[in-house]
């Protein structure tokens, strides 16, 4: 049974069909390049959906993986471990937080955040304060609770009644938020940049209004930084560029550079509502994941790396502007740092997947954010040569789609 020959067709034969993967099978990566099973190379502008922040096969992360892999992989949370304690210290030194809960994914981090918010409200105010405010087109994970809180009904339909007490408001609508947040609100959860919803940055005034309304009504403000966190926007966490501090922050994706790990960060008074047995996880915070994440934090928090993210983002935006001048294809290019969304004009509405497929044919791995938006989330340290080569290939893909 060893070394069976597998192809993209094997996926259709052995996997549950909830994904529709690309027609090629990646087998190796180095830095910002990936090779498929046929030996063809790709420039990686997708970053494993904003995950491989330090590229593929990063030598410093490989060293930590090998060192910790020879010591201790997993011990269970009947015990603590040194790497997870060091990781918590690092994240708390870089943020508002002084308590951390580690999980395996962004969805689990958000699940913990939402449960904590409801538990805190229950213990502080009683059972009537349970309402969660979220926003249209938001995305918070695929557990039943998080997908119900997310503002895209297509992901929660067909699974039976959704949890009660969840409201969805228009994103960036200050008046709607002020009108909705009230005595029954236990939490407001918001992405500082909506990722899956189209790469839409929050207006800082909107975030300030959420903070003020939460304070006025004893509600907790949760920032979902699963996609924006750990350097993606050019700041270690996106909230640090908004003037607004949340009560709870969730992070995953880039935190492990591809090794599964998520975290919920908060303060001691809020964390006190999660006493032993109230919430838990088997794998969360295991020493192997925590050791890798600790090195990621060390590397990404370097001010020079964060400045480089902002500079690379500006270069991509400038090049996309040139492509627009040639092809008249984008209605808007938006985002922060190296989380960029290029929305197609109405003439090309619904064709984001066509551009995605053409890019792959030209050797570029891309993302979309809905049917009309091309999304860029490459490595935070993508070399200039790879950036230029990828954008040149992307121009060829545009020629293929647009016929000129």
From TrEMBL:
Self-association state and partner proteins as the record states: Homodimer.
Gene3D superfamilies: Aspartate Aminotransferase, domain 1 (3.90.1150.10), Type I PLP-dependent aspartate aminotransferase-like (Major domain) (3.40.640.10)
A GO MF term: pyridoxal phosphate binding
Substrates-to-products reaction catalysed: N(2)-acetyl-L-ornithine + 2-oxoglutarate = N-acetyl-L-glutamate 5-semialdehyde + L-glutamate
UniProt feature coiled coil, ranges: none
Subcellular location: Cytoplasm
UniProt: N(2)-acetyl-L-ornithine binding residues: 142, 281
Protein name: Acetylornithine aminotransferase
């Amino acid at each position: 049974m060893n070394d069976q020959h597998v192809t993209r067709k094997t996926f259709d034969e052995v996997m549950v069909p909830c994904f529709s993967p690309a027609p090629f099978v990646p087998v190796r990566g180095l830095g910002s390049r990936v090779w498929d099973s046929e030996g063809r190379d790709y420039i990686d502008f997708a970053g494993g959906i904003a995950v491989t922040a330090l590229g593929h096969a990063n030598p410093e992360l490989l060293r930590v993986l090998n060192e910790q892999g020879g010591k201790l992989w997993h011990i269970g949370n009947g015990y603590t471990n040194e790497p997870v304690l060091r990781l918590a210290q690092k994240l708390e030194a870089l943020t508002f937080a002084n308590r951390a809960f580690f999980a395996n994914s962004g969805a689990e981090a958000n699940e913990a955040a939402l449960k904590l918010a409801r538990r805190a409200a229950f213990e502080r105010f009683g059972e009537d304060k349970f309402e969660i405010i979220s926003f249209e087109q938001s995305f918070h994970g695929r557990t039943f609770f998080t997908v119900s809180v997310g503002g895209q009904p297509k992901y929660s339909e067909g699974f039976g009644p959704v949890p009660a007490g969840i409201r969805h408001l228009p994103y960036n609508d200050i008046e709607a938020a002020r009108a909705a947040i009230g005595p029954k609100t236990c939490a407001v959860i918001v992405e500082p940049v909506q990722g899956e919803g189209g790469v839409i940055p929050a207006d800082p005034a909107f975030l300030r209004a959420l903070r003020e309304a939460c304070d006025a009504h004893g509600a907790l403000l949760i920032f979902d930084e699963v996609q924006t966190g750990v350097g993606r926007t050019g700041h270690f966490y996106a909230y640090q560029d908004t003037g607004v501090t949340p009560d709870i922050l969730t992070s995953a994706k880039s935190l492990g550079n591809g090794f599964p790990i998520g975290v919920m960060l908060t303060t001691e008074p809020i964390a006190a509502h999660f006493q032993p047995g109230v919430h838990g996880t088997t794998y969360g915070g295991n020493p192997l994941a925590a050791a890798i994440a600790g090195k990621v934090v060390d590397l990404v928090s370097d001010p020079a790396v964060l400045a480089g993210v902002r500079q690379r983002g500006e270069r991509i935006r400038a090049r996309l502007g040139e492509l627009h001048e040639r092809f008249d294809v984008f209605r808007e290019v938006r985002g922060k740092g190296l989380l960029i969304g290029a929305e197609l004009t109405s003439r090309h509405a619904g064709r984001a997947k066509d551009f995605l497929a053409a890019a792959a044919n030209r050797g570029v791995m891309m993302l979309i954010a809905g049917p009309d938006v091309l999304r860029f989330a490459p490595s935070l340290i993508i070399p200039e040569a790879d950036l230029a080569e990828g954008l040149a290939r992307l121009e060829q893909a545009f020629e293929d789609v647009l016929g000129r």
